Automatic annotation (TrEMBL):
InterPro entries in the cross-refs: TMTC_O-mannosyl-trnsfr, TPR-like_helical_dom_sf, TPR_rpt
Name of the protein in its database record: Tetratricopeptide repeat protein
Residues covered by region (Disordered): 566-591
Keyword field contains Coiled coil: no
PROSITE patterns given in the database record: PROKAR_LIPOPROTEIN (PS51257)
Signal peptide start-end: 1-31
Organism for this UniProt entry: Paucibacter sediminis
Alphabetical keyword list: Signal
Basic and acidic residues bias (residue ranges): 566-585
Amino acid sequence: MPASNRRPPAKPLWAPAILSVLMGCAAPAWAASEADSAPAVISNSAMDAPLFYQLLIGELELNAGQAGTAYQVLLDAARRTQDQALFKRVVSIALQARAGEQALIAAKAWRDASPDSIDAHQSLLQLLALLNKPAEAAAPLKSLLALTPAAQRGAVLASLPQLFQRAPEPKQVLAGLKPTLQEAAQQPDTRMMGMLVLAKLEQVADEVDGAMALTRSAASEFPDAEEPLILALDLMGQRAEAETLIRSALQAKPDNHGLRQAYGRALARAQRPADAAREFRLLTEQMPDNPSSWLALGSLELELGHAEAADGALRSFLKRLEGDKAAEPELSDAGKDARQQAWLLLAHAAEMRGELKAAEAWLLRVDAPQRQMETQLRRASLLARQGKLAQARQLIQALPGEREQDLRAKLLAEAQLLRDAREWAPALDVLSKASERFPDDADLIYERSMMAEKLGRTAEMEALLRKVIELRPSHYHAYNALGYSLADRKERLPEARELIAKALSFAPQEPFIVDSMGWVEYRMGKLDEAERLLRQAYGSRPDAEIAAHLGEVLWAAGQRDEAKRIWAEGSKRDPKNEALRETMQRLKAKP
């Protein structure tokens, strides 16, 4: 017989799928390996001929693209056999067909057939989150917690905020899950996590007072746990008390480097670079061989205008990074990217010192494709510093902009160049064109409003800021800018104060907003409160414009030597700052 006649017939494409389902429904028939000399124990499958035929038809229909028919056939088989693997298969078929309600029906049938199945309850809970049905989630969650071993219940609760993070109505999620979470918070094994997950859901639902109270209680009751402090970091921008918790924890355990680093990064995100730099300076003293702390410190020193300090920190980062490389010849991708970032920051520091050739030398080292736009923007800035604004704009315009985010970044960068060159009208033109392309981009409209103000077009600025607030009611910079503009012009001061208070409700520690509140208090004649707020703002961010405001309040209060000292500091950081120069000229004062 020719050898070719002994070849087995080709298997259909659907054979592996059928085999996996059939094996899932049959009891294992292999108690030993083939190499075993002992005879295998034979265990007959519980599958009868009708079930085999039903599974076969279901998989054939699925392979033919008839997911709906396959779903019905296999769901009926799952209900008859109460087989968990088959229920899971039916849920998967419905999800792949984007039939969420059918997946939910299958998951409920699975739960009803196997009330003690953790997998069934988990699948049901996940589908309720996916379909935005938090009101129905309480019962499955409660059952899942009861079925889950005590040591793992905290993990179940911890997964809830992420599970429901895309819910369009966070208050509905809170209402649906709150009773179960309150019960969990009464049980010893889930008390802390129940409190914290409930606090997180309250925070997302904008019930910050309740979130803060729960976080405070958890931190007090579990002083050695990190989780309450992590949530306090999230709440920092909304409640000052959250930061007090973190600082108390660091005072009790100053060597908690992970918490200090997270706190420093939270301060940086809150636009408080002076406070953030303080924490990272401590970290570099406590852990001098940790490269990441040096990189963060260098970036913050640069933001503060401390070019020399930034240069030193960034060189320390590279030195330690190269030390790591000596121990491990190949840097990780993250390490390589961090090195490229350091080179860009060193170029910026050199530019700040006026060392343009040194800046270009650092830029020549940057060769990562994903850093191309940043590198060219830095080169454009160097050209502008040399009076070659037209060439700088051409360099930016020549950058690739096929993707929407790249085009947007180009337009913003070009507007920034023009703004730095005090070319307000061309900058407004660029931003107006950007808004034509991205009409509902609140950040672009906000930037337009700032340029309109520079041109003295206050009515246009106000209209644009109100448009920003309409598009994004949580855009606290818009509330702040509008309130500050009114206060600076001594117009509608009660409204100005209300707008700034609204901004503070979103970001109570943000230095520029605190500065605005201090300024409106000064305009309303409240010198003591104005000084307190402005000192707070200046301490967190020693910006030249904040220095101008604080100095003027001190001048008005008769503290003229202190005012001159503050102005001198501001002038050293930013000698060309308009607000500072105008203030000193108006008051006929010299630092």
